[in-house]
Specification:
Shape: globular
Radius of gyration: 26 Å
CATH topology of the largest domain: Rossmann fold
CATH class of the largest domain: Alpha Beta
Strand order of the largest sheet: 2-1-3-6-12-13-14
Oligomer: single chain
Protein name: Ribose-5-phosphate isomerase
Order of helices and strands: HHHHHHEHHEHEEEHEEHEEHHEEEEE
Structural class: alpha/beta
Largest sheet: 7 strands, mixed
Number of domains: 2
Pathway: Carbohydrate degradation; pentose phosphate pathway; D-ribose 5-phosphate from D-ribulose 5-phosphate (non-oxidative stage): step 1/1
InterPro entries: NagB/RpiA_transferase-like, Ribose5P_isomerase_type_A
Number of helices: 13
Strand content: 15-25%
Catalytic activity: aldehydo-D-ribose 5-phosphate = D-ribulose 5-phosphate
Helix content: 40-55%
Enzyme class: isomerase
CATH architecture of the largest domain: 3-Layer(aba) Sandwich
Length: 360
């Protein structure tokens, strides 16, 4: 690619990649002085690797000017020219995706599936808020998880006047940030031990509205707010809707434990029937996950037969010394809302009634 303007567009990409607005002009200036500094392969390399990651006018223009004028898939060939092995691996993967229609289709299908799931979460959250966060509700518990941001979004949409006299109680850091950043009034369960409605997510819900919660390690505070609420509502997408716990959620029952006792507790949980129980380890730090309360979490998967009576399982685990709280929420939810793939919402009530409505 020898065109002068194309080189400037490539420089814009490189500058954007640095995430440094002060550095971008310098890179463009270098493109003026050293045209050969931006070779064909480097431009195509950055285009292939950044096109799907960084929406940019420069990328769009390069798509039109460079790729459109190429002979097709070969435009992204032979870009694994870095001296860094990991960069070469990424480049090779990019080549394979752009040269293989099946991989492109698979990539598109994954993105489409993610959009469906997010849409289902939003449907469940919006419907639950519309039906359960009413004008006379003044103290509202906000749970944790990936569906909860949609709960807060819908509450905000009710308007400033509706929310002016309300106080919102968080179950953890995530929900606290959502409340504050949305301009809602933040409260604490110490000040408001009686809550009108708590809406929270779940990792799995069975036919009797028993839940597994604690995938985000917030289940102690979540259970406190669920018990404090006159009405506890669960919102989730269709993947969390099961007849028996443990069907879809294979990670096991989250158990918050005192750090001092975790080793002995792990032995006791194994003896209780969860031979694969493990201490949950952090992904962005060395060592175990530490909850908002300074405790550790054990994940304990059990056989399906144990999940058929989750309340008995809950009692067995809770009796172990050193257990702070168990991520089994039994006989607590008044209703559960599940967003479905077809745009409908399934509503399960604690009294056994179930209906599916078309969300508006």
């Amino acid at each position: 690619m020898s065109d002068y303007h194309d080189r400037l567009m490539a420089a814009e990409i490189l500058g954007s990649r640095t995430n440094d607005s002060l550095l971008t002009p310098s890179i463009i200036y270098l493109a003026h002085i050293f045209p050969s500094w931006l070779s064909d392969f480097s431009v195509v390399h950055f285009l292939a690797s950044l096109r799907t990651k960084m929406p940019s006018p420069a990328v769009s223009r390069l798509d039109a000017s460079t790729i459109a004028g190429s002979d097709g898939p070969t435009a992204t060939a032979n870009i694994a020219t870095s001296t860094n092995p990991s960069e070469n691996a990424n480049a090779t993967a990019t080549n394979q995706i752009h040269q293989n229609p099946a991989l492109v289709h698979k990539e598109s299908a994954v993105a489409s599936s993610a959009n469906v799931i997010e849409g289902a979460k939003q449907l469940a959250a919006f419907t639950a808020v519309d039906q359960h966060i009413l004008p006379h509700h003044k103290v509202i518990g906000i749970g944790s998880g990936s569906t909860v941001p949609y709960v807060v979004e819908r509450i905000v949409q009710q308007g400033k006047e509706a929310n002016a006299g309300r106080v919102f109680i968080p179950t953890g850091f995530q929900s606290k940030e959502l409340i504050v950043k949305s301009g809602l009034i933040l409260g604490d369960v110490d000040q408001y031990p009686n809550i009108d409605v708590t809406i929270d997510g779940a990792d799995e819900v069975d036919a009797n509205l028993n839940c597994i919660k604690g995938g985000g390690a917030c289940h102690l505070r979540e259970k406190v707010l669920a018990e404090a609420a006159e009405t506890f509502i669960v919102v989730a997408d269709y993947r969390k809707n099961s007849q028996v716990l443990g069907t879809n959620w294979k990670q096991g029952v989250p158990i918050e434990v005192a750090p001092f006792a975790y080793a002995k507790l792990l032995q006791n949980v194994h003896r209780l029937g969860s031979e694969k129980a493990t201490l949950r380890m952090a992904k962005a730090k060395a060592g175990p996950v530490v909850t908002d309360n300074g405790n550790f979490v054990i994940d304990a998967p059990f056989e399906e037969s144990r999940y058929k009576d989750p309340y008995e399982l809950l009692k067995s685990i809770k009796m172990l010394t050193g257990v702070v709280e168990v991520g089994l929420f039994c006989h607590m939810a008044k209703a559960a809302y599940f967003g479905n793939q077809d745009g409908s919402v399934t509503i399960k009530q604690a009294d056994g009634q179930e209906e599916t409505i078309q969300a508006h």
